[in-house]
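Dear support,

We are seeing what looks like truncated structure output for some complexes. This example has two components. We would appreciate it if you could run it in full and send us the complete token output so we can diff it against ours.
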Amino acid sequence: MAVKSAGGGKYRKMSMSPKEYQAFAKTREPSRSIFGNCIRAFIIGGAICVLGQAIQQLFIHLAHMKPEDASNPTVAVLIIISVILTSIGVYDKIAQFAGAGSAVPVTGFANSMCSAALEHRSEGLVLGVGGNMFKLAGSVIVYGTVAAFFVGIAHLIFGTGGAH
Amino acid sequence: MLKGHQSWLFDNNPVISGAAAIVGPFEGQGPLAQDFDIVHGDLRLGQDSWEKAERMLLEEAANLAIEKSGITKESINFLVGGDLMNQIISSTFAARTLQVPYIGVFGACSTSMESLAIAANLVNSRSAKYAMASACSHNATAEKQFRYPTEYGSQKPPTAQFSVTGAGVSIVTQQGKGPHVTSATMGRVVDMGITDPFNMGAAMAPAAVDTIQAHFRDFKIEPGYYDLIVTGDLSKVGYAIANEMFEKNKFPIQQTVYKDCGMMMYDYEKQKVQAGASGAGCSATVTYGHLLRRMREKELNRILVVATGALLSPISYQQGETIPCIAHAVSIENEVRQT
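Here is the complete output from our reference environment:
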């Protein structure tokens, strides 16, 4: 930063260059506990998966569904739970603790859509809710589709079998 | 009157004849709750959008400040105000309701003192009899505009700050009862190349240091002149950095008590707000609620409030731009300054 003398000049102006400052500020950031975050993400993310598994077992045993048929209603139930928790303002609090644990499972996807829909409801149903619902989730869809396209091409070329 | 390079001395002694600070429910759970005029229990204030709630906060604070200073709305010459919303809609829309000649300003979170400095200058130069200064912010509108939807589950890093829901308004008059606005130092934009919008304390600290040093250079006084120097919303991370920078620059900040509004608003233990508070409403409500109360009770007689602002936009940081910052300092004193 240019040192420009103005007024009495008793106190020095900035004594660091931006580069020096960025390095200095970096060292003053409170550290994030990667290990702790991993453990918490594992526990909460795992708990969500256990819950999903339990719901699936309920569909299999109580509704006498085949395991492959039970997965769709299971996902729907998890989404509803996530949407309810988002709507009553709880999901974001869980997420502050859980980090990736609540962001990665399907509940995190539902939360991103529901929170955006809630947030933009005041701007109307079409341009507000409709236009903004995929604000955060949109990139997951875009890059999921792109990835699927390349996987599809690889499958076509190498034809490694699997379900058609 | 211009003092030094970038400061104004208000030699006609403008007075803050009335001020109001209104906050939301979360701020009402903090340690300063008793010092605010109204603590709302409902974050929405019964409105159907966050934006309307923010504007409502400002209108209420304006009306209360007018009432407290014992004047009528019609006698106010100018409202100088701003907020964090795009096109400062909270202030403009409140000005529509108030029907007072309006000067919109934007300095992000530094708006609180920017508006007060301009209002005091208008009154001091006899360009106004009564000028109203305002700043407000709302946690949900700021989250929505600058970050993610309020209910989106993202983990905030420890450097993140929590935007205050609150509005602070003051009425500056030529004479009357109340503390004097004695001087102001307008800051320059300082950008040290920080790009992380979740670490605004580190981005803003150099601007605060720059303005504070300029203030003392311009007025040729020592930090010990004030009972308290308070920065706007550097919070834990920025506050620690500012302290280290003062030390490095051999600036004798230890002569006085140096605090940060962003660290005073919430209870870190109970409220889990990461680094602390931010928002234009933070320094505005802490100053007009808490600090003016302490001045009335003579616990403090001379204070320097240095409101800090990060002048980023949601577009600028997504495009990878660094965060330009600014700080404006205003001194408030119980007695007229002897020059």
